[in-house]
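sorry for the late reply, my laptop died twice this morning and i had to redo everyting from scratch. anyway the thing you sent over, i finally got around to it. pasting the sequence first so we're on the same page, its 427 residues, then the predicted structure underneath. double check i copied it right bc i was rushing
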Amino acid sequence: MSQNADLQRRREAAVARGVGHATQRYAVRALNAEIWDADGRRYIDFAGGIGVLNTGHRHPGVMAAIRRQLEGFIHSCFQVMPYEPYIALAEKLNAAAPIAGPVKSLFVTTGAEAVENAVKIARAHTRRPGVIAFSGGFHGRTMLGMALTGKVAPYKLGFGPFPADIYHARFPHDYHGVSVTDALADIAQLFKYDIEPARVAAILIEPVQGEGGFTVAPVEFLHALRHLCDEHGIVLIADEVQSGFARTGKMFAMEHYDVQADLITVAKSIGGGLPLAGVVGRADIMDAPAVGGLGGTYGGNPVACAAALAVFEAIEKEGLLARSAAIGERIRSSVGALQSDPTLGIGEIRGLGGMTAFELIVPGTSNSPDAEAAKALTARAADLGLILLSCGVYANTIRVLVPITVEDAILDEGLTLLAQALREIRR
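ok and here's the structure:
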C-alpha cells in the first residue's frame, strides 16, 4: 500500500468526515511553488494553501525570522505580557493600509476571527446591529462567518439557525446577469423591506471574491457603497483575507479603486504560512470597543508576527507587486489561448493581477456552468502533477493561487499541465 493510501485510511478512521480534501495526496515537504507527497511524488502548487503562500513555501526570509523568534520565546499572550513583534507588525500594517488618517490594527489567528472582530468593532462604533453582505461572498466557518457567507452548500448545510440582523444583496457580475443597478436595487429593497439604514452597522464586501469565483467588484459599485455608507453612517468593511498581500498586484485589492474602506480584514498570506489574521482601520473606529473587548489567547502570536514582518520585507525587496501583475498576465494569456478552442468550454477569464480565474462552461453554450468539468479538471491535474482548486457560486470556476515567487519555468510547466489536463477531460 502506498503511503498516501495508508494515510487516507488512517484519516478516514480518525478525522471528522466534514473536513473535505481537494486531493488524497499527503504533503511531506515543499519549497516555493513545489510540493512533494508521502509517496515521494512532486507537484506544482497552483493552490498555495488557498492563498496563504503568496511568498511561497518556506521562503528563506520567513524561515529565518521564525528561527530567530523561536530562540526568544514562542508565546506569552499579548494581553498578559505584550511584545515588540506585535507592535512592529501593527506599525507596518498601519502604514501600508490604503486608509487615510490615523490607523490602528488588531491581530487574531484566523480570517473568520478577523471578520467577526471587524463586525464587533463596527457595532461598537455605531451602536447598531445590522450587517449587509453579498451573494457569493465567503467570510468564514464560524456561526457569524457562515451567516455572512453568501453561499449555502457546503458551508451552511445543517448548521442553522444563524445569527440575526444579517442581510444579503446580490454581488454585481454582468457575466451572470447581475448589474451594478441590480445590486444597488437589492440594497434599496433591504432598506425598504427589512432594515432601516439607521440600524445598519456595516456593509461587508470582498473587493475580489475568493470562494465566490474571483469576481471583481466594479469600480462604480464600490463608489456607490462608499456613498451609501457616508450618507447613513455605516462602516464599510473590505474583506481582503484572500485578496491582500500582493495577490492582485497591489498590497491590497482596494488600491485598485479610488475608494477607501473604514476597516480591512487580513489573514492568509500575511503570515507566510503561519496562522495570523487581523483588522486594520480608522483609529476612531478601531478604538470603539472597551478595553478587554478585543483579543484572543493566540492572537498576534510572536512567531507569526515575526514571519509576517518578513513577508512585508519580501514583498518590498523582491518586487512582488510587479511580479504578481506579470504572473496574472501570463496566466490570462495562456488560458486565453485555450479559450479560442470552443471544444474546451472556457467561459469568462477574470481577476486582478495574480488573482486569476476562469469559468468552465458546457461546450457550445454561451454561459452554462459545467461543475462536473471543474471537478474532473482538478482531479486530472493532480494525476499529472498539478495541484489546482475550483471555486465559484456554480462550482465551475478554476482559480490560480500559485505563489508569486514562483520561478518562470515552474509557472510555465504548471500552465502546460493545466492545458494538458483540460484537453484530456474534454476528449
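The longest helix spans residues 320-339.
thats about all i looked at so far, will dig more tmrw
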